[in-house]
Amino acid sequence: MPRHQVEFANVVVRAGESELLDLFDDLVWPALTNKQLKRTHGDSTFFISDCRGFVAHWNGKPQSVVIARIIKTTKLKREQYYDERQGIVADQRTLDSAPSGVFLLILNNHKLIYVHETAHAPPIGQVENTLRRFILATYDQLIRSKFSAHQKRGTPVTQRTLRTEFPRPDVDVIPLPHEGSIAEFINVFDVIKTIEVRLIRPNSEIDLNPFFKVARQEQERLKSKQTTITQRSTEGLSDTEAKRYVTAATRQGNARINVRGTDERGVKISGNNDNFNIKTYLNHVPKSITTIAKRLFTEFQKLAQDNHFPVSQSQDAGKKAEHLAQVHDWPSLQLRGGDDESAD
Question: What is the pTM of this model?
Fold first, then answer.
């Protein structure tokens, strides 16, 4: 029986001083629900469907969530096949295919849970690229709409002025790490020569590591667009401290990591967040999008309770998420630990 991979990530959307929840109604929700938006890459086209919002209740605490399906339409091509009697037989054919995955975004803490619904589902990096493309397309449309409104009112303004007043958003989907996977990844290196940490301006979130908290405060004070912290040694960084450092930097999903060095043969090797992200598996993915939402939310809560990753939420984020659910009149999901994953 095939198993369905589940991945976990932190979603960061920032535009100037505004973050994901501030930008939700203008950019995020339209990007997820506009059926005209499509992203083409090679022979493949990506789009989002079945988007809806819920209020998930876990242990009496409501959390606003959005679930959607990402679909990749593509063509599978073959040039030949093998027959035991004839050997290789030339036979060119194409077959339409549409692998898919489903993601759940928890607005209160910006965490994303993504399940591979079928074989060859879009990897989480393609989910990030699609979300970024759709949000930026929505942003461009917003600027055009504002520009048109100014023209109709007879109040001249340039699009450059509007883009200064309403900055272009940055969109990042950063996999959450697994400490055991980080240790395995670091052990591949014989010599670690460089660790680069590129800090992402987070959403409203409490920074749990003092070192990176100070670095982010300096980033904010300097109004830095990009902050990269580099640890380098030609002789090699400490393996033990490298594990601790990478774990601390990546734990909340607010930093991009790049590690470079050599293996025991002296061959140059490198890796990033994708090499040590948390993965779990489901034996069955329900057909109902509502039931999938329950399963993914329950999976996330169980891992969070077992301290596989920290979940921090500011009071302000909770209020904003609750307000969005009320404005959109999202229905409730009643949950309890151990929901039946085979239910439809």
Answer: 0.85
